[in-house]
Amino acid sequence: MTMRFVPAQRVGIATPSANPAFELEIRALLSPSVGVHVTRLPVLPGTSLEERNAAYMAYYPDALASFGALPLDASAIGLTGPSYAFTPDQDVAFEARLSRDRGHKVVLPSRAIAGALEALGLRRVVLFSPYPGWLTDRSLTYWQAAGLDVVDVFKVSETFRAYELTPEEVIDALNRCPAPDDAAVIMSGTGMPTLDALAVCQPGRSSVLLPSNLAVAFALARVLGVAPSQAFLDVAPELARVI
Q1: Phi/psi zone of residue 204: left (φ > 0), alpha (ψ -120 to 50 degrees), beta?
Q2: What tens digit of pLDDT does each residue of 212-236 get?
Q3: CA distances from 69 to 34, 65, 72, 73 (A)
Q4: What is the DSSP letter of 200?
Q5: What is the pTM of this model?
Q6: How many domains does the chain have?
Q7: Which of the residues 6, 14, 79, 178 could staple to 63 if both were Cys, CB 3.0 to 4.6 A apart?
Q8: Whole-number Å distance between alpha carbons of 141 and 125
């Protein structure tokens, strides 16, 4: 008898307490054969976004350790912004340290985006940012230091609204976002709802739309050696082909 509800592999994901999108989109994008287990980073009341970005990385190890004895094949952090305080080399080293400490691959969204771009052979990018100015600037510095040719920066909002954006707002913003044919649009921010927007905006578009959550699912599928879900195939067939 085939067991329908026992996953073949398991991943653990850690995300900020108020993030409404990361776990839902990762579950939708990964193969149904993969179990997705979720833990939340601590609530940090009275802190600004900048203060939380500076503080959160210190909580990653405890969040990942909170799965205890649950056997995991890989893990991911559902937060992109803090990595932009690093240089790319520092970020690579941080991801490697987290992975070494856990005994399995831990995926950071920033590194997942970099890996997806490399797999697609793309170096020209547009930054599609739901961040305030200071974090948009950090992301620009990070990706330029990574050797990417950032041809444009499109700000969805002057304030941080990633957790409040609706799919309709993301679709409208993508329709207004300029993107050359040979560029990828980095949609940084794991709390931004992206799958409905990809379903509407990617077909017929020559530039590749690359949200943080899609990149993380891509990285996890590669680590696990599994095919992506039908939802992944529907919204990002070109990325699915290089898993």
Answers
A1: left
A2: 999 999 999 999 999 999 999 999 9
A3: 18, 9, 9, 12
A4: H
A5: 0.96
A6: 1
A7: 14
A8: 13
Q: Return the H-helix or E-strand segment holding 223.
A: helix 212-224
pLDDT at residue 111 greater than cutoff 70: yes
Q: Is residue 3 part of a domain?
A: no
Place of tokens 């980073």: 41
Query: Does some domain include residue 38?
Result: yes
Residues spanned by the domain of 84: 9-240
pLDDT above 70 as % of the chain: 99
Q: What is the pLDDT of residues 20-44, one digit of tens each?
A: 999 999 999 999 999 999 999 999 9
3 pLDDT band, cuts 50/70/90, is: low
Closest by alpha carbon to 131, among 123, 117, 121, 141?
141
Q: Cα 143 to chain center, whole Å?
A: 15
Q: Which amino acid is at 11?
A: V
- Report yes or no: 124 and 144 within 8 Å, Cβ to Cβ: no
Q: Where residue 60 sits, what CATH number does that domain have?
A: 3.40.50.12500
Three-class SS of residue 51? helix
